[in-house]
Fold each of these.
Amino acid sequence: MREAMEDSLEIALSSYHTVRFTYEPRRTTVWKALAAYLQKWVDPQGPLLELGAGYGEFSNSITAGDKWALDMNPELVAYWHDGIKPLIQSALEPLPIETGSLATVFASNFFEHFTLEQGASILAEARRVLRPGGRLIVVQPNFRLEPRRYFDDYTHRTAYTDNGFQDFLAASGYRVIHAEPRFTPFSMKGGLPVSGALVRLYMSLPWRPFAGQFMVVAEKLTRSN
């Protein structure tokens, strides 16, 4: 019985990119603008890892040194630019990356898919591969802003708010250096037109309407901090 339940869960999860998170060309335009906004926190020469890379829009758009992209679905590699090193594995497995070698780890709409205990393990592994002062950049649905829609995604397991996630990072050996409780809208689904100019205008606003996601930038603490 337990094996049958696990098989059913595996089938449901493997269908995620055809049911819930299908390819949407408009996201490329959005992520080019978002990557330009986030670039100030990313070392343009330093190595970078994207967790849960999906269709690779962030890694394809950001300027960095060596790039790794992690996802469990090997079919998504076809969307990634040449030069991005694929890591097809679970984020719960040890990363085949040298300790203290990365400048940046990035994750978007990622940690909510794991339990709190699993999230703590992933944060610890990200901290291991980051160099001292290396940065973790996280974009997440904000339960405080979108409680009614947060669990519309059947793979969401843990609810995070901007304040709660910042505390989670502090408890996991990071120092938050920048946070935006209202970063982007909750979802890109819908028929509204998208342009880089509109996204850049939206990101320039002091208060962003319809925002449902937060963004946090944190640095790896060293023992002397």
Amino acid sequence: MLKTTDICIVGGGAIGKTAALALARAGHQTTLLTAERTDYKTPVTAHWDQRVYALNHVAYDLLSRLRVWDVMDPSRIAAIDTIEVHGDGDAAGHVGFDAYAAHTEALAWTVEDNNINQALDHALQFANGVTTQHGSAKALRFDNQGVCLYLEDGAQIASKLVIGADGANSWVRSQVDIGIQYRSYNQRAVVANFGCEYPHHGVARQWFLGEQGIVALLPLSGSCVSLVWSAPDSLASVLMQEAPEQLCRRLSNLPSQSLGAFTLLPPSKPQAFPLRLIRSASMIAPRIALIGDAAHVVHPLAGQGMNLGFADIDALLAALSKSENTSDCGDERTLARYARHRAEEVMLMQLTTDGLHRLFDTSLAPVKLLRNLGMSALDQIPFLKRRLMNQALGRPLSF
């Protein structure tokens, strides 16, 4: 009942699977522990997945190196060529970003959760050095040689390093007393997919609506878009209960929207997810590394939550490749290098998203005026706009 491996990854989502594949390709014997089997073999003709991500260049480059990107269904991937951000009120500000000005082929790509996971499952079936085990962990035990993971069914997994990729409510994080700062935004992300009367032309649109929250429409293939409405809890309840026609009218009435009428696509009922800020006191502990939502949870207004997770994987790979102790992937100095590498970017993204949420969450007239003026002023300063895009793209740009 004892399995020995170099690295054990807890968490069977897209971040955990990508980490398992990447670490195995880097030469580490890796075990991926998932709670249950999930079938992602959805046919192309099925409805759009309601979980959609805007993946940046870090994610694209990593998945391309792992030969996962090319396995995804290209007909269900849409390039984001332009981003339009609108303020609120009668004097609403506006700022726009485009791929041409950023000297890149696309700002991001919208990809369904289903599409990513199906491609990762396919890649893992043929990957050397990685095995998948299904079960639930109940305890961790440390000794001088490494760490042992005890499962509910009596099995044990002994490894040099355990990676927590098990989401915002991370079991791994709780087992090693890594403290967190937690704050609810008292909002829910209401997500659904819509057909549009007019083409979106690869434009991602976002509206800061003050007391009504933040609306984002991400382009999908064809004349379809994916809605992420970060709505206050009371409004989210209304959006979830009202008739589809009323939700479509709400979108049609958004200021300066140019997509015409909307039609709710199957499944006909939106989903909603609570929004919160989670800051981990550390991304590491002895022989433990956290990645993805297990390490940090940010507001989705910038669409960077999943991208931070892919950047975590990249940083962990870099730290392991530079390790002086190649026989011990859980070496203390290696993990410290990983944590240092990620500290600045994660903190900056948390401060940015949380600060923007606070700024646009107030209804005070002077604040509304200043934030709209600031947004319009930013649109006239190319240098600052490129600096912001540098952060969003996840790689340096020329100026």
Amino acid sequence: MKLFVRDKSFYIKAATLAVPIALQSVISIGVNLADNMMVGALGETTLSATALANQFVSIFQICCMGLGMGASVLTARFWGMKDIGSLKKALTLMLRLCAVLAIMFFTIPTIFVPTGIMKLYTKDAAVVAEGIRYLKWMVPCFLLQGLALTSTIVLRSVGKANIPLISSIGAFFINIFFNYIFIFGKLGLPAFGIEGAGIGTLISRLFEFSTICGYILLVDKHIGYRVRDFLSPCADLLGTYITISLPVLVSDTLLALGNSAVAMVMGRIGKNFVAANSITVVTQQLSTVLIQGICQASCIVTGNTLGEGHRQKAIDEAWTFLGLSMVIGLVGGGIILLISGPIIGLYNITEETAAIAQQLMQSIALIIVFQSMNSILTKGVLRGGGDTKFLMAADILFLWILSVPLGALAGLVWHLDAFWIYFFLKIDQIVKSVWCIFRLKSGKWIKTFREE
């Protein structure tokens, strides 16, 4: 067994998928950075409110990622098998579930209990009030973003990663332009403050939905999916879809809830800690864009290769992805250490908040090495092989038995330094990366779908 395969076509295919995904992530991070800087200019209370409100939005985003990635395990395999009929059915099931999730579990609660949502993360009355003003503009965003995000993942699984990239470029400029206008009151408009950030986000989500879903329903000929397919029967695929996709949804939902629990811990440590973490989140995302690209590319490549019937080739490629993950993790950690000082200096924050942010950056630089290995294995290679039940168990065990309780103890009971609080909150990344290497070596991660 060689750690790196020597097939040039493999690297070309992986790069063709990973680079547009990574660039799309850079654009999204650029939007987040611009949002943080503009909202941060309004003060730490407003910055904290936006950060905590977006933790709830992030739960929805990760749930959608679970739905989309679960469907992409099937669509990538069916694409490799040239089974377009089953691919359409998987897409239909995904869109239906996404609509139900968006409306029932996020839109309705945000309309009726926004105060309760914010109080999950903080007891600071001023932060809660500001967060409610922001959340009301997220109400129509859930369905729009959910359908666009899940459809984006499916497009990538059939080799159309360039379409979402084009959409993100447009959304980037739209979001920044309208945020600037509405937050600060330009072009003769009043200054909406934190609500201006919500308005800008809504406009950009409308653009993304129109671009992505419009392309799938009106233009795309690879899948050939049209509105009538949304109403077509697909019960014969439901069993397979649930078997593969439900564990992914549960796994990613638990991850979202775990991240939300982490935010609750941080919210109770103090406003300075929340503000410092919101700064580091953007930097962490910036340093992991290639990880995200390789992660999704590895899932798609693995699914396509197995769909074509090449088991040993998929195994060799899997070890190569592991080797790449180690290299990328080390590079990512170096980037964080390099840019942490300049990034922190961009914000109008107190010395105490800046000191906390610096400690968090150092801890993130260590954790990201293991995060790279863990993400590319769990959300990429092993998921692409259909091993979703194992991964669900891994997320449940290590996130909820180790990270959440140890992080809470470190921050709320032991009152450790910020470096160690973050380390314990993310300790599952270390344990899962080791456990998944043994799983990869066993070969049990390759599952067989129907008609293979």
